[in-house]
Design goal:
By secondary structure, the chain is an alpha/beta fold. The chain is built from 27 helices and 25 strands. Among the domains are: 206 residues; 67 residues, no CATH class; 138 residues, Transcription Regulator spoIIAA (2-Layer Sandwich). The longest helix has 18 residues.
């Protein structure tokens, strides 16, 4: 018996709603005046969002709004409403079909708070970058106000906040497990992942008079029901993946319903302790995948037992492949929250359709000349793909977009570049990025559709690149060449994070990238140097970075250019010891890197690393009460210490580092030689400032260089404010994907 990806109805295969006669709007309306100009008496669907409305395919409200418009519906936008009353939620009138509610392009808590739980001073998705334009837990607040504004109107919940909080989840800000967002919001249905298929089907079915309460068969949705319906077979997750003895490993490509194949795998003997385990599905005469639901431990159980929480997180992540995922259900008091399998990925034709809709590509005119930082960052960039098969445990891309890459065609991408060139104000000939979640997963996929549909591995590139993964970069190389040959395009840069362990499999790609598409700096994310944290992150060893660095420098030299790698690192990730951070700091110093900024691990809802953080266990392997604990960094002092190691060169961190090194028995690293990490005495920081003012001559600068050298052990060219292009520029924030 072979497994294949289930079929899905194409997005453009629906009959258009009657309001198609109005045609596309220049912008989806945000006021009654705009509706009047369009000749509308009402909206069919109103999208409420926590972001400023930018009519660009990098913004969720624009994609969903334009897609529904293309289906013939009249779509209005309520952007960043005043949530203290229902007034703003009534300004477009009552929607005929439903409210679509989303917190925005980011989880509202991550948007508002730093990893240290401090309120951010800005918001990139707001005009002027102003903070405070959306509430905490925006999805919940917006849903409540929609209910107050118009009782009885269905609420469809979506966006990344809904995706990552669809199940009982650990909430970093309250340091507790919260119930499914669906119950907090009292929405009628929740859409997770890229929701184009689901939202179109819901809109079409409501428009035909079907009750949203009856829509229990749509993939990529969650909803409340009282009991498992007749005809379904229910499996207890703790029976198929017992929090007990570690089972023998099953080949992730084996069909686990094939008992003969399972018997062969079991005969191979016990699994190594480090192997990634899979959820086994035991044969049963009544069992059919599309009529099987896995019951996770209830909200009340995972709230009170962190081991069961880690177990539930593990099962959830192993049921994410659209080709073989089963439905999940989790009890919350007297209600079941039911999760249908993930949506079927969009085909290339559908991706072209979605990205080819009539976007204005600029912010709504209501914002005037106010800058929206998130838009300024992406206005000259092009998203060429979706998804990520890296599976990094700290990242939410795979959980939201899936691990099967969804690609656009060359023609679609080239048309968008031409639109940017011809329509977007301020274009100077430079495309700032051709990328997406990663720079170089475009058109990369499993060699076998059958294996892809059956696989349960959480990553295609960890602990090494899967032998079934096609790492051919030729289509991406061809795209780069076409893009830079376009008239009016002077330069095409690659700014998305590069998956360097994939890139080294294609020297031709690395040469093409380095020769033509690096603007002086290239971001990559080794994240760490030590095996402990890297294994918990599911990231490659530092040897992959070294190999890529050699290729980068070789091709840079051949091109006659001066270009540098910008490595990104994470502090305080689960699995990281103080010694790991010390070794990373020594590596940074040895290689002449000084981090300008530091990214501390941020426990986002539903991420595997967050389950590690909460439970102290590793859900990548069988979770048991007796399984080895994962080192967790939670205390404020230890988190500050781990960040301080990344900025070992900053005198403000030296007192903390000295104390820590002495406690660790590594006082030998305190001193003024190049081999030591930090100096033995503390400089007067104010003295530096006055010295800089007094020594503005070249000779004075040399004096300051000598003083800094005494304190850091680095040569003058690698201290202070390094000249542009200097080797010692590393960062730890602004996460590149992968």
């Amino acid at each position: 018996m072979s497994i294949s990806m289930p079929a899905a109805r194409p997005l453009f295969d629906y009959s258009k709603y009657w309001a198609e006669c109005f045609g596309p709007a220049p912008f989806l309306p945000m006021s009654q005046d705009e509706m009047d100009l369009l000749g509308w008496d009402s909206c069919d669907i109103i999208i409420v969002t926590g972001d400023a409305y930018v009519d660009h395919p990098s913004f969720g409200m624009a994609i969903i709004g334009r897609l529904l418009e293309a289906q013939g519906f009249r779509v209005g936008i309520i952007s960043q409403p005043d949530w203290t009353s229902k007034k703003d939620f009534m300004k477009l009138g009552k929607p005929n079909l439903f409210f679509g509610v989303a917190a925005g392009n980011m989880d509202s808590m991550i948007n508002r708070y730093t990893a240290d739980r401090k309120i951010r001073s800005d918001d990139a998705y707001t005009p002027g970058g102003k903070a405070g334009k959306r509430p905490d837990r925006a999805s919940t607040v917006y849903s409540q106000r929609c209910r107050e504004a118009f009782k009885g109107v269905p609420i469809v919940l979506g966006g990344i906040e809904a995706s990552l909080r669809r199940i009982a989840h650990y909430d970093y800000w309250q340091d507790k497990v919260r119930q499914s967002l669906l119950l907090d919001t009292k929405a009628d249905i929740l859409l997770y992942g890229n929701a184009e298929r689901a939202v179109v089907e819901i809109a079409q079915r409501i428009s035909r008079g079907e009750s949203i309460k009856d829509m229990t068969d749509i993939r990529g949705t969650a909803f409340v029901r009282r009991d498992t319906p007749q005809g379904w077979f229910e499996l207890d997750s703790t029976r198929i993946d017992r929090p007990g003895k570690v089972d023998k490993i099953i080949n992730p490509y084996v069909n686990t319903q094939d008992t003969s194949a399972c018997a062969v795998e079991q005969a191979k003997g016990p699994a190594a302790e480090d192997d990634v385990q899979v959820v086994q599905l035991l044969s049963h005469p009544r069992l059919e995948r599309d009529k099987t639901v896995i019951r996770l431990p209830s909200f009340e159980k995972v709230k009170g037992d962190s081991i069961l929480y880690a177990h539930a997180n593990r099962v959830l992540h192993l049921e994410t492949n659209p080709g073989n995922a089963r439905a999940l259900v989790q009890r919350h008091a007297e209600k079941d929250v039911w999760f249908n399998p993930p949506p079927i990925p969009l085909t290339m034709e559908e991706m072209d359709y979605v990205f080819g809709l009539p976007y204005a590509r600029v912010p709504h005119p209501a914002y005037g000349d106010e800058k929206i930082p998130a838009y300024d960052m992406i206005r000259f960039s092009v998203n060429i793909m979706r998804g990520c098969f890296g599976g990094c445990t700290f990242c939410s891309i795979t959980e939201h977009e899936g691990r099967i890459i969804q690609n656009r065609s060359h023609d679609s991408i080239i048309r968008e570049i031409e639109e940017i060139r011809d329509k977007v104000p301020g274009f100077t000939g430079v495309i700032s990025d051709l990328g997406g979640p990663t720079a170089n997963m475009y058109r990369i996929a499993c060699k076998s559709p059958e294996i892809e549909a059956a696989c349960r591995k959480p990553s295609c590139v960890f602990p090494g690149i899967c032998e079934n993964l096609n790492t051919d970069h030729s289509s991406l190389i061809g795209l780069y060449r076409k893009a830079r040959e376009l008239p009016g395009v002077k330069k095409v840069l690659i700014a998305s994070g590069l998956r360097y362990d994939l890139a080294v499999e294609s020297p031709e790609y690395v040469k093409e990238l380095v020769t033509h598409h690096v603007g002086g700096y290239l971001k990559i994310a080794p994240e760490h140097t030590e095996a402990g944290p890297l294994n918990q992150m599911m990231k490659p060893g530092i040897g992959s970075y070294d190999r890529f660095k050699q290729m980068f420098e070789k091709y840079t030299k051949e091109a006659g250019k001066e270009q540098y790698l910008i490595p990104y690192f994470i502090a305080a990730h689960p699995g990281t010891t103080d010694e790991d951070m010390m070794n990373l700091a020594l590596w940074l110093k040895r290689n002449g890197f000084r981090a300008d900024q530091v990214q501390a691990f941020y426990p986002s809802p539903m991420a595997t690393a967050t389950a590690m953080y909460h439970s102290g266990k590793n859900p990548l392997r069988k979770v048991t009460y007796k399984s080895d604990a994962v080192t967790i960094v939670k205390g404020e002092r230890q988190r500050r210490l781990h960040k301080a190691f990344l900025r070992y060169h900053d005198p403000k961190n030296w007192p903390l580092l000295r104390d820590a090194l002495k406690e660790m028995g590594r006082a030998d690293l305190i001193g003024n030689s190049k081999q030591q990490l930090i100096p033995a005495y503390q400089p007067a920081v104010e003295g530096y400032k006055s010295a800089r003012r007094k020594n503005s001559t070249p000779e004075g600068s040399k004096k300051i260089g000598r003083v800094l050298t005494q304190h850091t052990g680095l040569p003058p060219r690698e201290t202070g404010a390094a000249k542009k292009g200097a080797k010692g520029r590393a960062k730890g924030a602004g996460r590149p994907a992968g």
